[in-house]
Queue: 3 jobs
Job 1
Amino acid sequence: MKVMSATEASRSFAAVLDDAERGETTVVTRGGRQIAIIRPAPTAPGRMVKAMLARHTTTVDPDFAEDVRMGRESVEDTPRATWPDA
């Protein structure tokens, strides 16, 4: 893990991002105090997301399903030619 001042991080921000892309974490300090941590973004492979969704197969609340249906029906299908007067 790298530690650098905010000034250093600012001057070499592209390099800090390159390091994060390679898996490295950088701690940014100001006045000797830690103010930020720049680290690689978390990732979730598609198969993990698909597996999680498959585990949660609960039935939709019937009241919610009815609210969605009514909301869909209340939307106009035809686009307006002009904006309505305010």
Job 2
Amino acid sequence: MIKREGYNNWDKVFEELKKLNEYQVAVGFFGERNSRLLTIVRANEYGAHIVPKKGNWLTIPTRYARGDDGLPKKPSEIEGLRRSNKKNVLYTKSKNGKIKVYFYLVKEVTIPSRPFMRTALLENGATFKRLIEKGVNNITFEGGTADKLLNQLGTTAVALMRQSAIRLSKPVNAPATVDYKRSNNPLVDTGNLQRSITYKIIPI
């Protein structure tokens, strides 16, 4: 540890403080990993009203349409799928007459806003302020670096954002979503959403 008294390595200090003014920490989801997940996150963070782009119906998957990766299969991927003449569903029928409904057909879907990202940042402003104050003090008097502080901010923000997604309980999921996920935690399913939260240090 460098003692404050007689400390004269100010050129290094100014260099590190200059870096803090040149870089910022971006936290969240980055599209190059999974554009489909990015669409889901955006719809939940800000809410969305979805209507069919092609055809007359949206397909809402049930638990039977769930793939091994936790994501729903497309209707074209399921063999023997039929449409009911009485109900707006797509289903299969086994030889013994057992029916499995794979999709509900609907005209539109409204996803309510569940702002877990903004909530994490807004509710933890004091935490980030303390980290920055401690980090600048470390740079100024103890030989710390801008990279260390920026990475501390990134890892802390990621952890807080993951916690925010797990804690969020309202608005609740629609009954069909609860059936598909087998739980009523709005933003938790396979855990992929939480694991995909990360950060980057980028130029301002």
Job 3
Amino acid sequence: MLSSICQKCGSDQAERFRFDPGKTVALGSSAGGHLAAMLATIADDDDLGFSLEMRIRDTRPQAAVLYCPATILHPADNFDSLKPSIEKLFGATEAEDAPYSEASPYDRIDNRTPTTLLIHGDKDDTIPLEHSVRFRNKLDANGVRAELVVLPNVPHGFGYGVTTPAQLESLAAIESFLRGLSF
């Protein structure tokens, strides 16, 4: 987000914080993956998140890395164990017309969504692997470069650390993905 902000407001902040505003990547896992995916899919003409204090409209990063992300928040598309949490988040059931589409990055994908790497374990019992498959497929259909790494026998929340085989494999995938970016 800082990248896009600094691209619009000048290089003083980028210089101050010592980063290249044209080379930012949003990364997140699970609910944090949802936030990173939202950042990557909110169009600059969307009022979601707009405030008078935040004058910059285009806050998309140049790429996104999403670990087992929550990209589809429609209760009907989720495991039964997650449905109460989603409904509690919105304070309404899907039948009550809660804004599930507005809050689902999957429903916001367009051809301006940045290049994305998804990493998901095939034993995830919190966020369906199918969500990452669908997300990647919709990115592909919109002409957006997307990669999906499926880790065998890996449950949800595997990415918090750097020592397990799954963590090391995901870090190698991220390094390869980032080296392949053309910014």
